[in-house]
UniProtKB/TrEMBL annotation:
Its EC number is 2.2.1.6. Dimer of large and small chains. It catalyses: 2 pyruvate + H(+) = (2S)-2-acetolactate + CO2. InterPro entries: Acetalactate_synth_ssu (IPR004789), Acetolactate_synth/TF_NikR_C (IPR027271), Acetolactate_synth_ssu_C (IPR019455), ACT-like_dom_sf (IPR045865), ACT_dom (IPR002912), AHAS_ACT (IPR039557), AHAS_small-like_ACT (IPR054480). One of its GO terms (molecular function) is acetolactate synthase activity. This is Acetolactate synthase small subunit. Residues 4-79 form the ACT domain.
Length: 173
């Protein structure tokens, strides 16, 4: 079972290594990991997609991660309403005759061509992982020369006001 874990950490040397080492010691397979600075100076957000067999083991690891000095907050956001995206750069074999055909394939995915050479095209796509995967599969017959994926990055959606309990009115004034 795949789980999405986020960790807010201090942006210091060795933090990523300590966090991934703890996951590795507990024999979690990290499917993807993305890390980047947050809106707060000196803080980073890590997003892990891990393969977990035992939910109790996941709870134990979450508690251990929270005890790490440079870890501020750890959350399993798998079952929450989230916004999640991935970026992929795909370089495919292409000549001038195939470019219009490829453009027609990538358009519904809102992907874009970001580089053109005599014998290849580089395409950028962002979206949910299944969307990215679907485009990769459609482009595979053309010959993928190179592929780079960021891994999933995600956070919990903002809370929506509840119209029934008058929250909207209190927000408006």
């Amino acid at each position: 079972m795949k789980r999405i874990i986020t960790a807010t950490v201090r942006n210091r040397s060795g933090v990523l290594n300590r966090v991934t080492s703890l996951l590795q010691r507990r024999q979690f397979n990290i499917e993807s990991i993305s890390v980047g600075r947050t809106e707060t100076e000196g803080m980073s957000k890590m997003t892990f997609v891990v393969d977990v067999e035992d939910f109790q083991k996941l709870e134990q690891v979450t508690k251990q991660l929270n005890k790490q000095i440079d870890v501020i907050k750890v959350s399993d956001i798998t079952d929450k309403a989230i916004v999640a995206r991935e970026l992929a750069l795909i370089k495919i074999v292409s000549n001038s005759q195939l470019r219009a055909e490829i453009q027609g394939i990538i358009e519904p995915f809102r992907a874009s061509i970001i580089d053109v050479s005599k014998d290849s095209l580089s395409i950028q796509v962002t979206g949910k992982p299944d969307k990215v995967e679907a485009l990769i599969e459609l482009l595979r017959p053309y010959g993928i020369k190179e592929l780079a994926r960021t891994g999933l990055t995600a956070f919990v959606r903002g809370q929506q006001p509840n119209i029934q309990d008058g929250t909207v009115q209190s927000l408006l004034g």
